[in-house]
Design a protein that fits this description.
Layout: H1 11-37, H2 44-48, H3 54-58, H4 60-85, H5 90-96, H6 98-119, H7 128-155, H8 158-178, H9 183-206, H10 210-230, H11 242-247, H12 256-265, H13 268-284, H14 289-308, H15 312-331, H16 335-354, H17 358-377, H18 381-400, H19 406-413, H20 424-446, H21 450-460, H22 465-477, H23 498-501, H24 504-512
């Protein structure tokens, strides 16, 4: 979940505490003035601009320079700490911010003017106008310190930094659409925004700041999905990836054919964002499972958005990265991460089914089978069982929507199981695959698709009787759909709906015939 972003603390919000401080000072000064001078006393303005205030005005120079020095010191320390924690590019964001420029300029101008006014006090006559301006500038500078510090703290808050970088990237997209001759700088600007967000996500993983990591990942997803939706409005020059290959760390090592493919497929920005995901994924594997799950979710949602936009190249790119994540999770032995990724893969396959992309569905189902079997070989048997149940859910969806390719999917599903190579864990995994196949058979029987159920029976006809009996007992024993431990899916693989459970007698009765 993304960290919620509070409303921005801008100039209007900063003016309120400034006004309150000014009002409090004025009221307190007015009360003290009335106590000393009474209602018939001289005007405060007359005293401020009289030659008698000369000694007070001469001390203003030291005060305002001291205030400016303290402000710059405090702000520099805060910005440096934030840059070390999140990304060094925060300093650049801070310097470019118009409010920071305005306030710092006001402090500097105030210091210079008061020094010059101080030098003018020894002229042929007393400069009452300058004295009044010095009083006003000095008052404004002192009263502005606390509101400005509040603005700086808000500016450097993690959620605000991420939001500001995200808005900068979106602005670059809009610039490229509206101003074709500014494509180069706009492209460089959004590349910089993506890298900044990637740096923040990586640094946050290292410092175990999960909310900030999730916020940065969400911002990256927003930029990628915005690019997919705006792609048809961007000029062709925008999609030329050749300039990026010369300097960009994510493209410089690519093969020339890949560079040309990115240009023709118009997917260089999606590749850039997914590269950041891949880097964060590698850092968080076996460490921060929620982060890797969110990376899988964002990748799948990007594929969904590309599917809606009829952007097949981006869909296939997302599939490749999902495969990369799965391989990385399996190689690292991170069962929970791979378990969650398989769920996202299955959701993507269902979206492809709904869109009528039969070939892509079969391709994704083949990948699910492959990585389930790969996990089985790496002694992660539970993942093969997970892949089988995801394929079971996909087949139920395909049959329910009468999607093309159902028969090919069923044939692939029946090839998931492998003979155990020894060891109890492998045997248990293959039992899980058989459970998924039996669950699918009960679905077919409940849907009056007896021929499909018969195919599953034929595949299991040589199964040992004792094994079948124990599998049936386990399926009949589970009474709750919700898993008894907390998990991201929250479902119990072995649970059967009552309407489908009654068909266990029918299916297992075929073995006795």
């Amino acid at each position: 979940m993304q960290r919620p972003t509070p409303p921005p603390f801008g100039v209007p919000q900063a003016l309120l505490p400034f006004a309150l401080l000014y009002l409090a000072s004025a009221v307190l000064y007015g009360v003290l003035w009335f106590m000393d001078y009474g209602p018939d006393g001289p005007s405060p303005l007359a005293l401020w601009t009289s030659s008698g205030a000369k000694e007070a005005l001469t001390s203003f120079t030291e005060v305002v320079v001291g205030v400016l020095g303290i402000t710059i010191t405090v702000v520099a320390i805060i910005v440096e700490l934030a840059a070390n924690r999140y990304t060094p590019r925060i300093t650049e964001l801070f310097v470019r911010d118009p409010v920071n420029r305005l306030v710092m300029s006001a402090f500097v101008v105030t210091s210079v003017l008061i020094i010059w006014i101080d030098l003018s006090l020894n002229g042929p006559h007393y400069p009452s106008g300058m004295a009044l301006v010095a009083n006003l500038l000095m008052t404004a500078s002192l009263l502005a310190i606390l509101p400005y510090f509040a603005y700086v703290f808000d500016f450097l808050s993690p959620s605000r930094v991420v939001q500001r970088i995200q808005n900068t990237g979106i602005a670059q997209l809009l610039t490229a659409q509206r101003t074709p001759f500014a494509v180069g700088p706009a492209r460089q600007g959004i590349v910089q925004a993506v890298e900044q967000l990637g740096d923040i996500a990586l640094n946050s993983v290292e410092k175990n700041d999960k909310p900030l990591t999730l916020s940065a990942l969400h911002a990256l997803s927003t930029l990628a999905m915005r690019h997919v939706s705006d792609k048809r409005h961007l000029p062709m020059e925008w999609f030329d990836s050749a300039p990026l290959v010369q300097v960009d760390q994510d493209f410089i090592a690519l093969h020339p054919d890949m560079v040309r493919a990115l240009s023709s497929r118009r997917t260089w920005l999606e590749m850039k964002v997914l590269r950041q995901y891949q880097a964060v994924f590698g850092e968080a594997v076996n460490e921060v499972h929620d982060v890797n799950h969110l990376i899988g979710i964002h990748t799948r949602r990007l594929a969904d958005a590309a599917l809606t936009a009829n952007d097949g190249h981006t869909v296939r790119l997302c599939v490749r990265f999902l495969n990369t994540y799965l391989r990385s999770g399996i190689n690292a032995g991170d069962v929970r991460t791979a378990y969650n990724l398989l769920n996202e893969y299955r959701l993507l396959a269902e979206a492809l089914l709904n869109a009528g992309e039969t070939d892509e569905v079969l391709e994704v189902a083949g990948y699910i089978t492959f990585y389930g079997q790969l996990a089985f070989q790496r002694h992660l048997p539970f993942l093969l069982e997970t892949a089988a149940f995801d394929l079971c859910a996909l087949l139920e969806h395909a049959h329910g929507t009468q999607a093309e390719g159902h028969d090919q999917l069923l044939g692939l599903f029946l090839e998931v199981d492998r003979e155990p190579e020894g060891g109890r864990s492998q045997e248990q995994s293959l039992r899980g695959v058989r459970k998924a196949q039996i669950k699918l058979a009960t679905y077919y029987l409940n849907a009056h698709a007896t021929d499909a159920a018969r195919q599953i029976f034929d595949d299991m006809s040589t199964e040992r009787a004792d094994r079948l009996t124990s599998i049936r007992e386990e399926l009949e024993r589970v009474e709750r759909a919700e898993y008894w431990e907390v998990s991201d899916r929250g479902i119990n693989f072995d649970w059967l709906e009552p309407a489908r459970r009654q068909y266990l007698d029918t299916f297992f009765g075929w073995f006795d015939a």
